[in-house]
Each structure stands twice: as C-alpha cells, then as structure tokens.
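Input chain follows. Return structure tokens only.
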Amino acid sequence: MKVSIITVSLDSADTMEACIRSVIGQTHRDIEHISVDGRSVDGTLDVIENYRDHLAARMSEKDGGIYEAMNKGLALARGDLVGFLNSDDVYAANDIIARVVEMLEGQNLDSCYGDLVYVDPGDSGRAVRYWKAGPYRAENFEKGWMPPHPAFFVRRAVYEQYGGFNLDFPVVADYEIMLRFLYRHRITAGYLPRLIIRKRAGGVTKPTLLNVVRNNAACYRAWRINGLRPRPGIFLRKIFSKFGQFRARP
C-alpha cells in the first residue's frame, strides 16, 4: 500500500528536520512525503531543500491557513492512504506506518487512529499531556469524543468521495472532517492502541476561555451543516474529557 504523508509548514526551521527524518526512518518503504509550505522566511525552505531527494512533492506559496495548505497536499497525494504530520510533530517509532498499513489491510478498514502525546517544546522527552484515544465507536461523538487528528489515517478514496477540509472552519476543520467521515458517513475505523505521534505543546489554539467558547460554537456549527443535531451537554463533555489527558502518561 502506498502511503502519502503530508506536512504543512510555516516558519518551522527549528523542527522541520526532525519531522522529515521521522518519515525517512519509517520501515514501511512505499511512502511519498509531500511538503506544503506557506512561504516561510526563517530558514524552513533551506531545510526542505536539503531533503529534496526524500520528498515526492514540494510547494511554497501563500495560503489562507493550515487547512487550505492541507487541501493543497491532498490534491498532490497519490497514495492509497493519507496521513498528516505537522512540521513540529514526529512519529513515536519507526514502525508506525507499517503497523497502520498492516491494520488497515488486515481488517479492510477505511481509516484508523492511535494515541498522541504532547511534549514540552523545550524538552521533547518530557510528556505534558497524553491523549489516549480509546476503541472506536461512532456514537462516542455524541459524548464529545474525537480521535487526535495527527494520529488519524484515511484512505484517499474517502477524501475523493466525501471531500477535503471545509475552509469555513478556520480552527476546527479537523473536527468537522472527522465528524463528517466517521459519524455522518460511518466510514469504518479501527483503533491502534499505541502511541503514534509526539507533538510539541502549543500552537495556534490557546486554551483561553474565549477560544474555548469560539471553538465549541464552531463545533456546534459543524454538526448542523452536516444535518446532525448534537445532544445537550456534548461540548461540556468535550471540554472535561481533556482534563484527564494531563494526568495520563504513555
């Protein structure tokens, strides 16, 4: 099975090399790594150029945000399976893609996902939050559940059938697309019970009260545009479900 790994970046010079090398180190051999950069100015493009022989496709141009860049990567992808590895993330082990492919092929699934750990940006060996996704049940979306998007792999045919990221959702398009695929269209999915991604904590979404309110309003809209009605209290459950991630460890 050919696997497309898409990495979007913007001014990620400090982390881009580790990201690329984590793909190079995968034991699964049939991987195309696609780099979509937002026209970085900090040296990221120099790193990408240094690894040009390991990248199936490269582009660097202005975009409207991370999800537009991801859609550009999807347009370039030629693999049977698609995964996203952000420029500040790395795979937790060298056999991650091999195990994902083995699970999808062995169980004839449309998608699968695993666990994710947030690490200290200054000390990648120190875990600060562990997202244990747990076994898959579509109805868990009604309880505020979602899998971690960086650890979510989907067959390219699903994107072709149901579409890419909805750019009307500048922050929670990952939630909307997983809701659309898993809950609305009920694609098949499996849980790989192991750590998939090591992700540096931080990013564009800070856990302020205003951001929490805005994000949950956007999640509510994601349900409605998909013709779905969320259960009362679902987004409070979604917020509280994250508290345990700060106590959990790999």
